[in-house]
Every structure is written in C-alpha cells, then in structure tokens.
Amino acid sequence: MALAVLLCIGGLSACGKKTSLVATAVKRADTTWFLYAGTGKKDTLSFQFNKNDAVVKAVDAVGETAGQNKLNGNFANPKYTADTAAETLRVDANQTITMTFLSEFTGRANGQNVVGYNVRYNNKTYHFVRLKRTPKKQSASSASTPQSSGVSGTGADSELAAKLMKSIVNVNDGAEPLQDKAFVGTYTFRMFIGKNVGLGQITINENGTYQNAITELNTTNPDDVDKASMISYSLVTGQLEALYGKEYLNPRNLLTVAYTVHGQNIQRRLPQRVTLWTNGHGGNNINLARARVENTGQHLIFYSKDYTPWPKEGLGPVQTGLAMTKAEGTTPQVQDIYTTSLNAYRDIQKTPVKNNADFMQLLGAISDAHRQAVGQVAVDFSDRYGAGVKTTDYQGIAKDGSKQPQMQYVFVVSPAKVVEGATYIINTQSGSLLVFGMLNNKLYLLHQPDPDSATVTWIGMNDVDLTVPPLQIRLNPGI
C-alpha cells in the first residue's frame, strides 16, 4: 500500500516520564508560565513553550502578557532543553536561563491565584507558575461599568443571527473630526498576539472614527504567515480621542469571527463562532487594553499592551510600538464582515465537502464539537495530519477478498492515543495514523487486520453524522 502522505507537523511531544515536574510544565503548550520571586509584581519573566522553541518575555508582573522578547543570538525565539532526570530546564536566550525544579507550589502572585513549582534560579528560590484561573481583564474604558450577562444563539438562521446587527453602536454619533490630518488613511501593522503571529489593518477616518481589523494566525513563526490557519478575525470600530498630541482609540463595537482551526482548509475556512461585544447604553463589554496611535514625524506608531512587536521591529522609547505602513483601500465595516461570515458558513453548510481539504476540515469541526473525537475514535490534530493524499493509495479489500469501492475523499490524522491491538491504527514510516474516507456522504475508517500485512479494509462509521456543526452566535457574553 502506497503511503505518500503530505503531513503537517505540530504540537509538543511530552518528554520524559509523566511524573517529571519539568516535563509536566513544558508539555502544556497552551499555557503561559511566569518566573518570579517575592510578590510577582516586578522583575518577572513569562514563558510559552512551542514544539521547538520558547516565547520568553520580560513582563511587568505575573499575569501580564506584553513585554520585551528575550531572543537568541539570531534574533529568534530561543531553543530550550528539558532534562527530566535532573529536573532542569535550560532556555538558550542571549543570557541563558537555567532552572532546577524543586517541588510543587500553590499560592498568590500579583493578587492572583497561581499553581506551579518552586525552582532554583540564579542560586535563589523562585516560583515558576501559571494562573490557576485567568481573570477577565477590563479595558480602561470599561472599568467602572458592569458588563451585561450576554445573549447566545445557535445556527446561522437563529433569531439572534437575524437581529445581531441591530445591536451595533453608531460610531458616528458624537465623533469629533480629526485636527491632525496626518493620521487619516489606511495602515497595516504586524505583531504577536500572545505567542501567535497577528496581522492588523486600521483605517482612520477624517470624521474621527476608525475600523481596526486584527487577524490571529495559528503559528509562532512569522515566515509561515501565508500558509498558517486562521484562528480568528476581529474587527473593532470606534471613535478617536485626541490627548497629549496622540489619538486614543475608544472602541464601540468588536466583532470576532472564530474559525475551525483543526484541519482547517485555508482556501475555504469554516466559521465556528461569531461574537459581538459593544460599549454603549447596555454597558461596556469590550475587553481590550487601551490603544493609541502616535505621530513621531517619521512614523505612525500603534501602541497596545494586547500586542508585542516582531523581533527587531519594536518602535518607541521601550520598543513596544508597532510600525504602521500606509496601505491602499479601506478596512471593512462590521456589517460587511458579519454578512460575509454568515454567507461563508451557509455555503459550507450546504456543500460541506468538495475535496480532501474540505473533508479534513469537516471532521476537524466535528471533533471540536465532541472533545477531539470522531465517533469513538480520539484524534490529535496537533500532531500529524494531511489532506494531500490520493484516494487510490488506499485500496480496501473486503473479507471475501474482493476490492472495495474507491473512496471519494481521504485524509490522515494522528490518533490521540495508540491503543495496542487496535486495527484502525495504521502503521506507516511516518508513524501511527488514522485514515478516514468518505463515500456517498458516509464516513469510513481504514483498518489493518494484520499488522504485518499491507492488506487494509474500509469499515463504516455509522454513528457519525457528517453535518456541519451549528454556528454559534453570541452578543456581549460575560466570559
């Protein structure tokens, strides 16, 4: 059986035995860790561990996300080494960071509950922790106003979907025209959102309003911008306020479209959730750090603690500003993005699968809705997966020895766990894989009855409904 598989490698492998303190820390790929001494209100480092490197920042305090990146000699994220036997972690930044894990720790830092470990760092005892519960930060504009409880709906044709745009706050009401026309125009900028790469486009209008679009990509590598899956697209509209020679952004509407990331077909992305937050008569619900734009004469610079510059690109006194580049066109309005997103979802809902990539995205969405499982089979889209395979590579043989019909669509993905003796786990040179097939709108899983034989057979998964999970619509959710 030919197994010419185009694989996408991701995720983080566990290193060492499960009881290792350091292994438990670095395998939490979606967690931000903080290294500090004392109360955690100063001199703090934050860490996020990718498969091959770490994002390290000097931040003001435990719980903060913005800070100065600690890079290696090549101005890239540093590599790290976890020694599970010695319980040590070394991060190869310009100034090497070495910690020895001593024991578990639970406490409070910077007013927040934290859990983690006591570590030896610079010959002193420090704490290496994560937030036990991530509190919802408030924007400067919403600190004194209670948030609404929120409304949610299910489906692109739900009642909330039909009336969501009626909740939009009119940004033109009360807007004051800009005095400094140098700010007017459309600009692009790029940054990190946490550890992920982000892209921004803002249009600043003469009447004192703005549209700011932010795209978050599922990659930590700036070189992968053109091929990375999209986590979300957010559009903020609001008014500008001139203070101290700068223009501060006062948001009124924030629409975020979250996409199916696991197995995403970047040519035909599937919206998974649409959320609208507003600051208006119903309370202030937008949860963004205060942002501003400055004109230095040489540059327009965007500042927000929600974002971190790319390596070597930070501007301003402490190099936390984002360079704004003049661009053509105009950033769209909230209503346009909402309509486009609904239409994209309805198109995929009507015809979910046109090719292998669509098939993989559909099962990615189904697995997301069922705790990373397709039927009774647990899948792992953070490891190996790919749709660049040929259906002819997987010719199934029935029990009577006859050839089974050829599948219309096929893709491969890693199993979440390798079950000894499971015939549905196919052993290949690339590792253990699950091979899913689709024929006449029915789902099949490839089985290998004999592990020492190339003979495989397709078995139907009749318990799996191949329909697109419903689109979630939310208005001012509390969380």
Overall number of structural domains: 3
The biggest beta sheet reads: 13 strands, mixed
Number of helices: 4
Overall 3D form: globular
DSSP helix fraction: under 10%
Average the pLDDT over all residues and give the rounded result: 87
Strand content: 35-45%
Any low-confidence stretches, pLDDT <50, length ≥5? 1-18, 134-148
Number of beta-strand segments: 30
Structural class: mainly beta
Task: Determine Rg (CA atoms, Å).
Answer: 25 Å
- Distance between the ends: 49 Å
Biased composition (Low complexity): 137-149
Region (Disordered): 133-155
In brief, what are we looking at here?
The chain is mainly beta and 479 residues long.
Overall description:
The structure is a single chain. The chain is mainly beta. It has 3 domains: 12-131, Beta Barrel (Lipocalin); 140-347 and 471-475, no CATH class; 376-460, no CATH class. The protein is 9% helix and 40% strand. The chain has helices at residues 21-26, 159-163, 334-350, 356-369; strands spanning 8-9, 33-36, 44-49, 54-59, 67-69, 80-83, 88-91, 97-109, 112-121, 124-131, 151-154, 185-193, 196-204, 209-217, 230-243, 246-259, 271-280, 283-284, 291-295, 300-304, 322-323, 325-327, 373-374, 377-386, 409-415, 426-428, 431-439, 442-447, 457-460, 472-475. The strands form 3 sheets. Strands 11, 12, 13, 14, 15, 16, 17, 18, 19, 20, 21, 22 and 30 form a 13-stranded mixed beta sheet that branches. The longest helix is centred in the C-terminal third of the chain and has 17 residues, at 334-350. The chain is globular. The model is unreliable at 1-18 and 134-148 (pLDDT under 50). Residues 133-155 are annotated as: Disordered. Residues 137-149 have a biased composition (Low complexity).
